User: Fold these one by one.
Assistant:
Number 1:
Amino acid sequence: MRGITKLFWALAAASWLVSMASCVEPASESDEIGYAELTTVSLVPTRDVSKSGVVGVGDTTNLYRDVDDGTTPSAADNDATYVRTTSGTEFTSHTTGYSGAPSGTVTQVTVTYRARRATGTGTAQILLYNGSTRLATSPQRTLGAWTTFTETFSGLSITTPNAIRTRIKFHNTALSGTLRYTQIFVTLTYGASTTDGGTATDSGGGGTDSGSGGTDSGSGGTDSGSGGGGLPTDANLKVAFIGDSANGSNFVNVLRLIRSEGAHMVMHQGDFDYAHDPDGFFATVDRELGASYPYFAAVGNHDADQWAGYSRHVLDHLSANGVTPDSPDLSDQKYAATYRGLKMVFVGENGNNAEFATFINTQLTGDNHIWRICAWHKDQRALQIGGKNDEMGWDVYENCRRLGAIVATAHEHSYERTRTLVSMTAQTVDTTCSSPTSLCVSPGRTFAFVSGLGGNSVRDQERCLPTTFPYGCLGEWAFIYASNQGATYGALFITFNVGGDPRHARGYFKDVAGRVVDTFDVMR
C-alpha cells in the first residue's frame, strides 16, 4: 500500500499536474485548500471512521491503509492487502474519511471500489455521508471474482468536502466464510452551488435518496417518500417489548430480566394486571425499575375499565423523562410520543379502528424519524398463531406498513414474529428480503410481532402448523415460541442504531430462564 497519497489536480488554465501529498499536509475538515479553478479531484481514504465486523489484512490497526491503493483501478493490489469480513457474520461495514480536498461546492461524488467474495457469498453496497448525515445509497452489488464497481451520486451540494465519508456495507448471505475489498477512492466534481442537502441520485441505478436524510435500501428495498426519514435514535437504544403480564412473581422476573439486560425503556402492549389495580401494578414497576423509568404502554382489553388510572401512571413516567405526548388526555386510547429519537404511536382496543388508522396516518405521514413503532394490544387472526379473532381491522396494520413502521402487539400469550411483509392483509413476504433473520423496514414493507409472554400464562400454537420452521400458512412466520416449543416468560429486546449505523437494528427474545431463542437483524 502507498504510505503517501498523491492528489492530482486538473487546472483549467494548463494541462499539468501537481503532487500535493509530498508538500502539503492533509487538510482537516475545516481547512480546505482554496483552488477555485479545480473541477475534479480524486482522493484515497486517510482515516478510519468506524468498523463493524471487519479486520485488516496487511495493517491490522489502520484498516484504511489496506484499501488506499491509489486513484486508478489498475493500482489495486488485490489479495496483497485488503479488509475482510469476519467469518460467518451476516452484516458488516467499514467507514473511511478523506482529506486534502479543495474548498468549494461538490455537486457529484463518484465512489470506485474493488471487491470480491472469498469463501462467503453475498453483496457489497456503498453509503455516502457528509459528516454524520447520509446523502445517498448505492444498489447492492453481488460479489464474485475481483471486480471494480463505480457508483456515481449526483445532484449534491456539499460545502465541506473534507467531511465526506464512505461506508462499504457487506451482507454475507451464506452466513459462512468471508467477503473482502482491496481498494476504494472518491472522485469529487465541483460546480455551481445548489441547495444544500438537495436530492442525491445514484446514477448507478439504485434509486433516489432524499436530502432530508437519505435512504438505506438495506437488504434490497427502497426507502422513499415522506417516510424516508433521517432523525436517528440514540446509539444502541435498547427497547424491551412485553404484554399480558399480570402482577405476580412471573412479571417480577420479567422486569428483573429487563433490568439485567440493560434496556433503556419498556413498551408494554397492554393487559397489565387483570385486577384493575393501577396503583398496585405500577408499585411493582416502580420498585423493580424505578419511578422515573421510561415506561410506555398501550391499553389492553383487561385494562380498559381503569385506563384513566393506568394512563395517569404512564404520563408520570413520561413526564419524568421529559416526554410530552401529542395530547395530555389519553382517554381516547391513542397517543404519540418520541423518546431518544424513537417515534411511537399507540392506539387502543375499544373498536374505533377507523379512528386509530387515521391517527396513525396523521402521526407518521411526513415524519422523518428513522425508526418508528406502531403499538397496540389486540390482533388480526392471521397475524397471531393462537385462538384470537379479527379485532383490529387491517387499516391500522397497512398504514404502519405503508409508512415504514414496525408493528408491536400482544394479546395472544406467546411470542411470534413475521418475516418482512409487503402486504399485511395477504401476509405477502417480500421476495427481495425474505430471510427469517434479516428483515427490512421502509415505506411499503415491515414486520409484525406478538410479544405476550409478560407473565400471565403461556398458550399453544394453534395456527400455521407445524411447530417447527418452516411453519405453515403462507410462509409469513419467521419464528414462533409458544407452549409447543417449550416457551416460558420473557421479553423481546430490539436495539436501534447498532454498531454506528443509525439504520441498523438488532433484536432477540430472551426468556427468564436465560435462553435467547430468537435473534434477527433489521435494516432501515
Number 2:
Amino acid sequence: MPQHVWVDGRILPADAPAISVFDRGFLLGDGIFETLRARRGVVVELDAHLERLRESAVPLGIALPPDDAPIVAGIAAVLAAEGLADDGSAGHAPGDAAVRITVTRGAFLARGLAPSGRTRRPPQRCSGTGSRSSPRPCAAIRARRWRA
C-alpha cells in the first residue's frame, strides 16, 4: 500500500485529505488518467505515457502544465518518498511500482454540469484501427440511439 501521494506539487501522506469534495473528478469523473510502470525505480516509456496524457486532455479542454517537468518531478518525488527511486536515496536497491497520474478539471462551485465557459458539443469517438505510433484522429460524430 502506498504511503505517499503527490498532489498539486506537494508530497502528502496517502491517507491525508487531498482534494475538494467539489472536485469535478470526484463528483463527475471529469478527468483523465494514465497508469505507468516503474522498473527498478525508472518509469517505462514515460514519454509515450505523457504524450497520451496530453492527447487525452485536449478534447476535454483540461489544462496541463506547458511542459512535462512538474509531472516528471512529481513521479520522481513519489518514487523517492516510497523508497523506490533509482537515485541511491533509498539506501537499498530500487523497486518496481505502478504509478497512476490522475488529472481532474478541479473544484467547480457553480450550478450545472457543463464545465465553466464550455458549451455542449457532439461526443467524440476514436477509431481503434490506428497504431500507437500513428493513431487515427478523433472525429466529431452525432450521437445515435440504437433501438432493440
Number 3:
Amino acid sequence: MSKVVKGILIVFVTIVLIMLIGLGLGLYYFNKIINSSNIEVPVIEVQEIQENVSAYNEGEAVELPEFTEDQEKALSALGIDPEKLNEPATQNCIVENIGEERITELMSGKEKPGITDILKFKKCF
C-alpha cells in the first residue's frame, strides 16, 4: 500500500473513531439528563385505566388527572399544551402513535416514558 493510501486510511479511521466517541458521549449525557429530571409521571390505578380505555373505545374523551405545576412546565417546555390532552382528537392521535398497551404501562407507573415515547407523543401537537 502506498503512503498516500495509508495516510488517507489513518485519517478516515481517526474521523470514524472521533464520531463514534462523540455519539457515545452524546447518548450518555442525553440519557443522564433525561433520567435526572425530577418529573414524576402521574400513576393511575389499573381499574381507572380500564375505564378510560372503555370510554375511549366508545368515542368519549378521557379526563386525565390534574398535572402538577412542574409537570405542566415540563410539558410546556416540550411544546405541549396540557389543556389539549383532554381533547378527543389529541387522545386519538396519542393512542394511534403510542398504542393502548404502552399507554397502560406508562400510566400505571410500571415504565417511564423514553425518548421514543416522547417523540411519538409530540407528533400529536
